[in-house]
Amino acid sequence: MTGTVEQKLGTLGVVLHEPASPVANYVGFVRTGNLLYVSGQVCLGQDGKLIAKGKCGVSVTVEQGAAAARGCAINLLAQVKAALGDLDKVARVVRLGGFVNSAPDFLDGPKVLNGASDLMVAAFGDKGRHARTTVGVASLPSDAAVEVEAIFEVA
Known about the structure:
Layout: H1 4-11, E1 29-32, E2 35-42, H2 62-84, E3 90-101, H3 109-124, E4 131-137, E5 146-154
Parallel strand pairs: 3-4
Antiparallel strand pairs: 1-2, 2-5, 3-5
Helix pairs in contact: 2-3
């Protein structure tokens, strides 16, 4: 049986998959007190392939970057489900930190990260509104276009 948040995601066509295993010396999430920190998730699709590869402003458009950020958000939620068993236990999305693989003159990183932010608000309503940082970077693992990390408050 799925909870309210997962049902809402289902209406958006989002199905959570098994989260990717860490590729280095870290864990996918850490809970301390009522906070859940989720490690950065690159833009892997359900098929395990990158949704967008390369630099925004060169080979990746803002729209493709936003779709990649949305994919990162889905991967974040898969980690949250693995950690808590139920997305309805999220009391608040506290913060998203976004990293955009960018050309030096690419200035639309915030528009790219809206792909992740919009999904959090669609899934959680007002509890999904969050603080956010967007940083343009020279490279990301596997040449992913986007990576997003998050902090959640849990009930």
